[in-house]
Amino acid sequence: MSVQMHIPGVSDLTTQDKSPFALDQWYVAALSSECADKPLARTLLNHPIVMFRDGAGVVHALEDRCCHRSLPLSAGTIEEQGIRCGYHGMLFNGEGRCLEVPGQSTVPPRAKVKNFPVQERDGIVWIWFGYDQQAAPNGDAPSYPVHTSGEYVWGGDAFHYDAPYQLIHDNLLDLSHLGYVHLQTIGGDARVHMNAEMNTTTDGDNVLVVRHMHGVTPPPTYTAAYPFEGKIDRWQEIDFRVSHIRIWTGGVDAGTDDLRDPNRGGFHMRGFHGVTPETETSAHYIWTIATNPKANHEETLKKVMAQTAFTFEEDKVVIENQYQNMIRFGNQPLMSIHVDVGANRARFIMEKLRTIRR
Amino acid sequence: MSVQMHIPGVSDLTTQDKSPFALDQWYVAALSSECADKPLARTLLNHPIVMFRDGAGVVHALEDRCCHRSLPLSAGTIEEQGIRCGYHGMLFNGEGRCLEVPGQSTVPPRAKVKNFPVQERDGIVWIWFGYDQQAAPNGDAPSYPVHTSGEYVWGGDAFHYDAPYQLIHDNLLDLSHLGYVHLQTIGGDARVHMNAEMNTTTDGDNVLVVRHMHGVTPPPTYTAAYPFEGKIDRWQEIDFRVSHIRIWTGGVDAGTDDLRDPNRGGFHMRGFHGVTPETETSAHYIWTIATNPKANHEETLKKVMAQTAFTFEEDKVVIENQYQNMIRFGNQPLMSIHVDVGANRARFIMEKLRTIRR
Amino acid sequence: MSVQMHIPGVSDLTTQDKSPFALDQWYVAALSSECADKPLARTLLNHPIVMFRDGAGVVHALEDRCCHRSLPLSAGTIEEQGIRCGYHGMLFNGEGRCLEVPGQSTVPPRAKVKNFPVQERDGIVWIWFGYDQQAAPNGDAPSYPVHTSGEYVWGGDAFHYDAPYQLIHDNLLDLSHLGYVHLQTIGGDARVHMNAEMNTTTDGDNVLVVRHMHGVTPPPTYTAAYPFEGKIDRWQEIDFRVSHIRIWTGGVDAGTDDLRDPNRGGFHMRGFHGVTPETETSAHYIWTIATNPKANHEETLKKVMAQTAFTFEEDKVVIENQYQNMIRFGNQPLMSIHVDVGANRARFIMEKLRTIRR
Predict the structure, then answer these.
(1) What's the distance, CA A61 to chain centroid?
(2) Within chain A, which residue ranges are assigned CATH 2.102.10.10?
(3) Minimal Cα–Cα distance from B182 to chain C, Å?
(4) Which residues of chain B form CATH 2.102.10.10?
(5) Portions of chain A given CATH number 3.90.380.10
(6) Of A284, A302, A281, residue with least CA distance to A293
(7) A87 to B195: CB separation less than 8 angstroms, yes or no
(8) Running DSSP on this structure, what letter comes out for residue C79?
(9) Could you give the angle at the alpha carbon of B282 between the alpha carbons of B278 and B287, nearest 5°?
(10) Interchain CB distance below 8 Å, B70 and C318
(11) Strand ranges (E), chain A
(12) pLDDT digits (tens, 9 = 90+) for A173-219
């Protein structure tokens, strides 16, 4: 099968009936820890946005532009009641209403900036973008109990990609690349990864890819973080959900547990991967990694975080390189192989969701 | 009032009847001190120009392109009689006439480059750009006796802005921003600046903004440079003149002098601000600052220069940030507030002067 | 005479009947020494190409794009039989045929990438680009016995130019610039170079420029590398050949040998200058320099290599500067002088060869 990827800069993707992005979705805007005492500027789905946490601890998202002289509000300062512009001091609350024009007794009603629906849950700040910009979100942002259940230690970071979000989806839905790209961390023998048992199922807009590898050598990150006896059985469960992907991987001593049992023991890594378009040609990759150390919780988390960040930097190099090459060569057909099933289904879903509903 | 700014990259500004710049004007090309033993390359109003001082001490401006193989003449060397190209050695005098083609006995009449009218006065090099490129300037370049009267010590520098000249005008004509942007130098309590007495008058193509602040705390630059007793009365006189702005600011011990009296005592800072478009989207900001030290002339000038340069670097960050945001958001209306009167009048004058006379 | 140069970014050059480049030519792709144990990525005449030396020592050139997910093959690894993609491990041989899709039992026939004809001769890797992409090369790549005769020691390097190849031709065909640009190495008195005897002949698509300078002071590189007695007689023979230029320069003690005799003694520098377009606006300059040391072969070669590299860096600065200025000023006529005869003839030949044969 030959797949035509509609990659911006490579082929036209926006038609009359298509939005550049799937809308009516909660997207990952930030990690909670990123919203502290300074404004956070981030362009999300082509909207330049400033996020800030007010005096009551609530995170807000406004258009990142003062209505007076267009300075980014993110260049200003956070106060108890809102955010103050750094040029002439206009103060805006979390709804975008101007509370004060310094030196002027009245505030004109036109003094306001656009705000966006935000929800903070389980350490993640979500933002809503709808086809109808006036409509309220049609439900709550997703929960992610891995962060709050107490079963795991976790950390995360926000990476920026000079590549469209679709290529990050491809990468995460096809973990067969571990044997070629991530030899120093979670990879290992390439043949093992390319020949893993793989099962792909689709449920609505979700895709689940499950891969099992039996009796294999644990890769460097695994042995650094967990006291395995020898060979292990490994699992990779990739749960694709439009705005983010949940990946549950791990290993147990070979032959000790059933890999299909969610209560299997051993070493667990639970990855949360928020893939949020910045523009049609760039993306934010906001991730966390959670694990279940046997001992030395802090030290183990440090190791797992460092190796995960290193792994994702490797992916970033590959994906940005891949995208530059797609631009160089233009819209040439791509040839799919056996490992691409999950990625191709996700691609199909994303294309479908870009259709504008009227 | 909502102002539509015709900012390049944001809205179209050049129509059939409009030049991108106000012409028939002397513009600031350089400080005299910049024209020493090396050619000075600078693009002014879209013209790439090389300036050089010949053996007789006269500064000239030529098109920065050798007519032979197009190398910039600014990559060449200055000689007694003119400037010599660094590729094959053709020598041009200040009028742009070729005096020598090395290895060739004759100089063809076509061997010449365009020159531009230049005048050097009071430490400033001025260049003339007219609607009619053949016509001579219709008068002398402006004088600036502050540099030559002996009353002041002064220094200056040339900054480059990745932003159109109009935004620098805005910034200089509205000094209310001092309380938010320049806290470490000439700012101070933001309320004082936003609530200053302000009087704006227009006279032909000039705009004069006068601001007074009574009984206020002197800001860091003032106390570093002058022995004030305690609270002071401050004045800011902003004199807008199309190609440059003269700003006379200062302070006296509170209640000692009438701020309306030009012979008032105290600490004086006289700023000269040449705002010369490089292109429609970038500008040169060629400035000097003069002051009247009580003692330690050299040391005080050093302090005032350092703090002024720091202040202008802060403005540069704000203005370039502002311009990038205007590009990001496109041509959205800007809301004016009370402090924008002078800036809006200058904007109106500049728009009017861009009209091509036939 | 005024020459209109068809320089990309300056004037349009590609018409219905014109290719951007002269085709049906062997071009210099690399030095042999560049093809070692790592893939070599280089864009040549707009084709992104990866070169690699297989286990049998043969150099191959493939399109630098895996047909699976578009990653550059140059990001992969060389194996005995070919090159393996760094993302999912597909292996391609030198003809571009896929030998293996890991984890998949069959290799689909569509799994292939384009290959290009390559020949390696005398330390140089040549690549063929034809008007008809299917046709075989119409002959062998050029030999260059200077590298292999044993008479000379030599070294080389590959430079990248942000300027079109035509400007490198101009520079190499007109050595009169040595007196202005290369004062520290092979230059010397500018008058001598501008007034050299010059004889230009054309033979088909070749141009030969011969220049003699009698009784002149040897320049720094010459005295550093050779024990001259005093004044010398210098020769410069520039042999232009479409895809590369051979320049034989040198000097003998003044009055001792006939400069027209190819067996003249003294100090010899034989330069090979592969000028290969990267794109219409950028070029590769792949050069070697050979010399005939009297003693201390290794040390003398080191000196000659260092001074030659320094000289070519000076040319690069001039040419890139020149090209930027041509872009700034647009397509203005250039005025030719006496030294431009050879360069203008080469330009004429290149323009002629760009005509597409049907």
Answers:
(1) 18
(2) 25-129
(3) 37
(4) 31-126
(5) 150-353
(6) A302
(7) no
(8) -
(9) 70
(10) no
(11) 2-3, 25-31, 40-44, 47-53, 59-63, 77-78, 83-84, 91-92, 98-100, 115-116, 118-121, 124-129, 153-161, 197-203, 206-216, 232-240, 244-253, 267-279, 282-291, 334-335
(12) 998 899 899 988 888 788 888 889 999 999 999 999 999 999 999 99
Task: Report ipTM for this prediction.
Answer: 0.91
Q: Determine the CATH number of domain B31-126.
A: 2.102.10.10
Set of chain B residues whose Cβ sits within 8 Å of the Cβ of A48? 325, 328-329
Looking at CA atoms only, how far is residue A71 from chain B in angstroms?
Answer: 4
Q: Read off the tokens for C293.
A: 């040391």
Q: Which option is the CATH number for A25-129: 2.40.10.10, 2.30.42.10, 1.10.10.10, 2.102.10.10?
A: 2.102.10.10
Length of chain B equals: 358
Write down the pTM of the prediction.
0.92
Contact A194 C85 (CB under 8 A): no
Strand C334-335 and strand C2-3: pairing?
antiparallel
From A221-235, B56-70, B206-220, C186-200, the region with the lowest mean pLDDT: C186-200
| CB neighbours of residue C110 within 10 Å | 10
Please, which chains are in contact with B (at least 3 CB pairs closer than 8 A)?
A, C
Domain C14-129 belongs in CATH node 1.10.1060.10: no
Query: What is the CATH superfamily name and number for domain A150-353?
Result: Naphthalene 1,2-dioxygenase Alpha Subunit; Chain A, domain 1 (3.90.380.10)
Q: Which fold has domain C151-353?
A: Naphthalene 1,2-dioxygenase Alpha Subunit; Chain A, domain 1 (3.90.380)
Instruction: Judge contact between C62 and C92, C-beta under 8 A.
Output: yes
Over residues C249-258, mean pLDDT: 96
Contacts of residue C193 in chain B, CB cutoff 8 Å? 103
Who's near A100: CB < 8 A, 6+ residues apart? Answer: A89, A90, A91, A107
CA–chain centroid gap for A110, Å, is 36
Per-residue pLDDT of C12-33, as tens digits, reads 455 668 899 999 999 999 999 9
Rounded to 5 degrees, φ, ψ at C227 are -85, 75
Q: In whole angstroms, what separates CA C242 from the centre of its chain?
A: 10
B64 → chain C, closest CA residue:
C325
Helix (H, G, I), strand (E, B) or coil at C332: coil
What type of residue sits at position B57?
G
| CB contact at 8 A, B89 and B136 | no
Entry field: residues in chain A:
358
**Class (C level, CATH) for B152-353:** alpha beta
Rounded to a whole number of angstroms, the distance from the CA of A13 to the nearest CA of chain C is 18
Q: Which two tokens stand for residue A160?
A: 């920026």
HSE-up of A239 (CA within 13 Å, CB side)? Answer: 10
Q: Answer for the pair A28, A141: CB distance below 8 angstroms, yes or no.
A: no
Domain with CATH 2.102.10.10 in chain C: 14-129
pLDDT given at position B1: 42
Question: What residue has token string 């975008």?
Answer: A96
For residue C1, the model assigns a pLDDT of 41
d(CA C54, CA B72): 47
Please count the residues of chain C: 358
Its sign, for the CA torsion C120, C126, C127, C129, is: negative
Residue among C193, C194, C335 minimizing CB distance to B67 = C335
Contact assignment for C322 to B65 by CB distance below 8 Å: no
State the Cα–Cα distance between residues C341 and C200, nearest whole angstrom. 7
Distance, CA of B68 to CA of C340 (rounded, Å): 10
